[in-house]
Amino acid sequence: METTALTSPGSFKADLYALHLRLRPLQPGTLMPFSGELVHGAWLEWLRGAAPDVSARLHEGNKRRLFTCSSLQFPLPPAQVREAERHNRHLPLSPEKTYTVRITLLLGELFPHFYRALVHFDHMSGNMRRSPFMQIGRQVFLLEEVIASPDDPSRWTGFTTFRELARQAASLSPARCERMTLEFDSLTTFNWINTRNKIYGNYYALLPLPRYLFPGLAKRWQELVSQEPETRELAALIQPELIEEYILDDGIIIEDYDLKPHQVHFSTHVQPGFIGRCVYRLRGPDPASEPGQLSLSTAVPCLTVRQQLWLLAYLAFYCGVGYKTPMGMGRVRPLL
């Protein structure tokens, strides 16, 4: 197979990236079916060697991570992989096959560093396809290809800006906003505690109720857009109080679902959660946010609460939802 080089978006400066790294094992072997914890470590280890400053930025302190990693994706039927995950049965690796890791970058300046690190790695190694790229557990992988195109058939790759996500949400008609389907493609759960009364402690929520999902995404939006001076004004597009009131008033409800309980194995524990699809109905009336200082020339008009929820669903494609997104959990996308 010919290597397809990663092409930079050029003068287009995105804020969010979803990349597929296509890997080929150096030799036959096996790997645990859910390897998000191992991929997380392998990704940071590669960055430490190729771009130590970027690695430090991604891993600094106890701050929210500015990336997500998937588990290694096997070229097998999903049902077979799910069954192996539940029972932690190792799956075979073959040098004749290609495997995939999904990486998302949640800070625009990270992609140029990553791109330069890849070019440097290719130059130093002579050829990415013949030099070890990443070690996941005990297995060593070569890099076949990096995919960033939004047109990839997997529909899990792409790049965009925060302003573009906002414009996309603002363009939705009231009728288009009424239903939202989210696909939870990897184990998802929410490490939840009742902040009003903590007497019963925290627990892992096993259903994607709106109150678990959207307030956390609203906070994530404001964290991410506040990283750069040119996007800080976009924080006002999302109004957490308005969203929480809409949720408490049952403005958004679950209308249909195809969800299943699931579990994966980390090195120290078994993690419960769920996978599947959930259909939400967004009911009227649809209150609008207070008009702000944003104009069409810099961002978008004020958004209704339903448009804000759609904006957060678009964001979730890149940042994931819930618990341990840097380690392969909470991969989600809206089905359009």
Structural commentary:
With 336 residues, the protein is of the alpha+beta class. It contains eight helices and 14 strands. The longest helix is centred in the middle third of the chain and has 16 residues, at 110-125. It is globular.
Distance between the termini: 32 Å
Strand count, sense and closure of the main sheet? 6 strands, antiparallel
DSSP strand count: 14
Write the H/E string, N to C: EEHHEHEEHEEEHEEEHHEEHE
Radius of gyration: 20 Å
- The computed structural class is alpha+beta
Helix content: 25-40%
Shape descriptor reads globular
Proportion in β-strands: 25-35%
How large is the count of helical segments? Answer: 8
Low-confidence stretches: 1-5
* Average residue-wise pLDDT: 88
Short account of what is shown:
The protein is of the alpha+beta class. It contains eight helices and 14 strands.
Main attributes of the structure:
336 residues; alpha+beta; 8 helices; globular; disordered N terminus
Write the layout of secondary structure elements.
Blueprint: E1 16-25, E2 29-31, H1 36-50, H2 52-59, E3 67-69, H3 78-87, E4 91-93, E5 99-105, H4 110-125, E6 132-136, E7 139-147, E8 158-160, H5 162-170, E9 179-188, E10 190-192, E11 203-205, H6 210-225, H7 240-248, E12 252-265, E13 270-282, H8 305-319, E14 332-334
Antiparallel strand pairs: 1-5, 1-7, 1-8, 2-4, 3-5, 6-7, 9-13, 9-14, 10-11, 12-13
